[in-house]
Design goal:
Keywords: Signal
Shape: globular
CATH class of the largest domain: Alpha Beta
InterPro entries: Aldolase_TIM, GH, GH114_TIM-barrel
Number of helices: 7
Organism: Streptomyces pseudovenezuelae
Protein name: Glycoside-hydrolase family GH114 TIM-barrel domain-containing protein
CATH superfamily of the largest domain: Aldolase class I
CATH topology of the largest domain: TIM Barrel
Distance between the termini: 77 Å
Radius of gyration: 22 Å
CATH architecture of the largest domain: Alpha-Beta Barrel
Amino acid sequence: MTRALSRPPLLLALLALLAGCAGTPDDESRSDARWQPRPGVAWQWQLSGRVDTSVDVPVYDIDGFDQSKATVSALHAKGRKVICYLSTGAYEDWRPDAKKFPKSVLGKGNGWKGERWLDIRRTDVLEPLMAARFDMCRDKGFDAVEPDNMDGYKNRTGFPLKAADQLRYNRLIARLAHDRGMSVGLKNDLDQIPQLVGDFDFAVNEQCAQYGECADLTPFVKADKAVFHVEYELPTSRFCADSRRLKLSSMLKKYELGAWRRAC
């Protein structure tokens, strides 16, 4: 009698356990999955002016500081994925956290008003500052991050930066994004693509056609990862055919990166 009564709870427990086990992989894949943009996907890149949310493309790249959670939500409501633009390799004197950067990590200007290269070797200083910025992107609901100025070692920064320093810093930046469930793109830094393509989910490039460098981005395409590409000085007739052949997501923009665009 006791055994007969004990069987149903035991069977129910086993069934519940099996059901739980069967459901675990799907649950984990949903919670751990990051957005992975594929080659050729259309995009809009707007870093100045009021964001025009009417552009009919699947991906937007907008300024992480200047744009609000409401803007990100509005784009999500239209079915867009949204990338958070941040400068991670250069200091910008107008950002709300600018006073938190000690002078010891500020180098030479990078050619843009109010911007100076950062000493990326000083991860003890920069990691918490960048982590706070990535927290902001996550909290606003962004799907990914575009970290800019990721090739300081190739420029006159005022610091003796080496390729190894850049690799270490870029991988740190990728980890900060991934730890927060966001995808991350490698900005320019063409020479280190072979070492970094596995750490980043897509690439962002400026003017590879003008400088004859677009073929260097093929490791991302071969890995089924998008390459978001813009030109500023070439007409679309000079680069769109090659972009389509290489499966790049290409468009012509103006330097101020307002709403205007001309896609391939």
